[in-house]
Amino acid sequence: MQEGSYVVCINDSNWNKLAYKKLSELPVKGKIYRIRRVIPNFDTDCNEDGVALEGIFGDWDIYTLKGNIKNFEEFHFIISRFREIENPSLVEDVLEEEDVLCEV
């Protein structure tokens, strides 16, 4: 996935409690979004990339990463909550292929 890619939300459950405070809204399963930024390997717990989506904005803050590295970044989503789609009209096909949802 990269900036400008279209994605469909495949997991809209078990949000971190901070997500409700730090994001303008939360993605909805089955809804299509466009990636505005990819945040490489930001999450220290699961070593996944993050994504910021068009139309949804997070608070900016200083976060402490592994090794006590400070980083000023926008609160964002873990990339595994989304599946990239080539053609946004094919979102139902993508959802049918998903049988296991990430709980992160």
What does this structure look like?
With 104 residues, the protein is mainly beta. It has one domain (6-97). The protein is built from 2 helices and 7 strands; from the N terminus they run βαββββββα. Strands 6-3-2-1-7 form a 5-stranded antiparallel beta sheet. Strands 4-5 form a two-stranded antiparallel ribbon. The longest helix is centred in the C-terminal third of the chain and has 7 residues, at 91-97. The chain starts with 5 loop residues before the first strand and ends in a 7-residue tail after the last helix. Mean pLDDT is 83; it is low at 99-104.
Strand order in the sheet with the most strands:
6-3-2-1-7
**Percentage of residues in helical conformation:** 10-25%
Task: Let me know the average pLDDT.
Answer: 83
- How large is the count of helical segments? 2
- The number of distinct β-strands equals 7
Stretches with pLDDT under 50, minimum 5 residues: 99-104
Quick description:
This protein is mostly beta strands and 104 residues long. It has helices spanning 19-22, 91-97; strands spanning 6-9, 32-39, 50-53, 60-65, 69-74, 77-78, 82-85. It has one domain (6-97).
